[in-house]
Give the backbone structure.
Amino acid sequence: MNAEIVAIGSELLTPFRQDTNSLYLTEKLNQLGVEVIFKTIVGDSREHLRGSASLALSRADIVIFMGGLGPTEDDLTREAVAEALQLEVHRDPEIVAAIERRFASRGWKMSANNAKQGDVIAGAIVLPNPNGTAPGQWISGKYEGREKIIILLPGPPHELRALFDQQCMDRLRAKLPPQFIATRVVKVTGMGESQCDARVAPIYKRFTDVQTTILAGAGEIQLHLRTRADSLDAAQQRVDQVVEEIEAELGDCVFSDNGDSLEQIVGYYLQMRNATLAVAESCTGGLLAERITSVSGSSRYFLGGAVVYSNQLKTGFADVPADLIAKHGAVSREVAAALAEGIRKRCQGTLGVGITGVAGPTGGTPEKPVGLVFHALASDRGTEVIERNFPGDRKRIRWFATQQAMDMVRRKLM
Amino acid sequence: MNAEIVAIGSELLTPFRQDTNSLYLTEKLNQLGVEVIFKTIVGDSREHLRGSASLALSRADIVIFMGGLGPTEDDLTREAVAEALQLEVHRDPEIVAAIERRFASRGWKMSANNAKQGDVIAGAIVLPNPNGTAPGQWISGKYEGREKIIILLPGPPHELRALFDQQCMDRLRAKLPPQFIATRVVKVTGMGESQCDARVAPIYKRFTDVQTTILAGAGEIQLHLRTRADSLDAAQQRVDQVVEEIEAELGDCVFSDNGDSLEQIVGYYLQMRNATLAVAESCTGGLLAERITSVSGSSRYFLGGAVVYSNQLKTGFADVPADLIAKHGAVSREVAAALAEGIRKRCQGTLGVGITGVAGPTGGTPEKPVGLVFHALASDRGTEVIERNFPGDRKRIRWFATQQAMDMVRRKLM
């Protein structure tokens, strides 16, 4: 079975607001074995809404409408869906009375327009809204000769979630064949998307029953694997098998096979090795420290560090000799190494990281262009330096650099 | 004229990823007087994609497709849009050569699948991609007898934005009737959303021709104002008038009336006063330094700072007396002040900022609960400390704290 989610509201077609409910619903639907095949966002126009409803009914088994159930003139979902289904709408006096009581319990008088929220599509089951006035509706029936499930939900997230969980999950489960679904996420760093795909495609193509999605972010690739089978064990075994083959192919470029972030992985390794880390950052300006400390409990392995934007501070906080900077320039292999060694010593850490580079957009030269970054990692067994030329803007270059630095720490401790 | 935005990618139909590009495009289209009437999200299915393309072409004047232009087998946008338009696709050897050069310049060899990115729909103008390999495409022509503009854009946000700005805005402007739209954004900090709305509503309600949208984020409120008139001057004058009244009402809580971020504003003030800044961060872990240095050119006024997670480093990098920490605890008014004073002196800055607090989720006590943060600002005229109790999770608490600290710097220099 598949589903389409239709989000309704003109505010969702402005630059300021975005539908986020659909992520929640997708997670829940996936748990039931239902795939979302389309999402549509439509404004408060009866014509557009009716058209979207007809279309969704023609292409999906389950259609969920979110929003447009309120009391104002803009709230047109009930009428438009009824028109698409060629069904009547009638006003349910019990619902109107319940809304009136809800207002009265707060000491308010219900204004007349609220009665509209008692309109029910013929044949619909009314779904009580625990957190608001507008109830949801559930219709199951035929459309163009095929069985459909149609659900109307209120737009506010806390109303939608509670109503969906309490009123829809069991109803859907009862309508669906039992499902056994297993998922895994493999995260990869140190290679590009096409390079990664070229290497793993021969694997995932053999597993035609496993759905593979490749997501590339800045300096990181995620492989999302998902399958269904006759039992949960069988499904799990099947995705585990793909993960195993992918890990064998990509080796230590895989940094996580259970969804953990690079920040978390670096933290695990540091704790496992009883090691501590200190960092001296120039071009990344604190981003590395910020990412590492975004993990709760990072104080157990992260000592701290220095943001050494000025040359004086490179000397003052990480003991980089001034003549070394004068000789090689602040952006150099030598200064990166000195930063890593200096901060390690100063903070008495197991490991020290030094980053220096040109984040841009200004400050580049033919010899040292924007994107050039030196990453150094110092330990008791010496210092290694990796030089990279990152593409992109200031934000991306800084992000890539922190990704590279964390990957060096990970590989060191592996 | 109206537009539909079609976002392509199976990952956008999972619980993990969400289209955000459409917010950017909507803002740009609105500036040209184009309203977005539908957004569709569709997976990497040729059939679904072709269907969505045909539908969008039938109901909108401008159709923008985002994503699915990459080198993998999942990337089907070119083929599917061509089918919907009943046009051929041919491979452009010049584009393929350019992609090859792009790879070579990084010392890589282009893998064969990348050649696919040279496929061009018949009659399309190829839009060079300044930040990636896949070019965009622009097609203007008739569909079912009506003039349409069709744009294909790459999915990665930094590619899409640069390409749309450089290649599409002028082309669209040339196709559209002249529009006179003026917009302003007023940014406010130091008050809550309902408090702000209560004070500005009497103003914006008088300007019925100006559309006002209030957005509340973490530690910041934005008022978006927008109007159209018979001339650009008239439109501009009208929004300027609202902004003037709002600024008079909210006073120094307004930190920007032209869209600048708090990071930028702090930078302007520091440069204007010929002042420099150094920071010592505990619970924010580098986020303050990172935000300040996210602004290009920040090396002119930002000296650097220290991330002092451990107590030893509070002493080592910011000369906080160990007995002061022992007496008051690391999270205290006294230690915040000492951090600000110590880092200012060490870095020889005009101003020094110290932040210490409990970002959570663990580490809170009845006396010092999660969310408690002390912010200190030291100058040659002494040190001020602000104590706050922020709501929310680790990420929000850290963000609020940096917002508060930057606002202290701003007010100091105003």
In short: The two ends of chain B are 44 Å apart (CA to CA). Chain B touches chain A through 84 residues (CB under 8 Å). Chain B has three domains: 2-175, 181-256, 262-413.
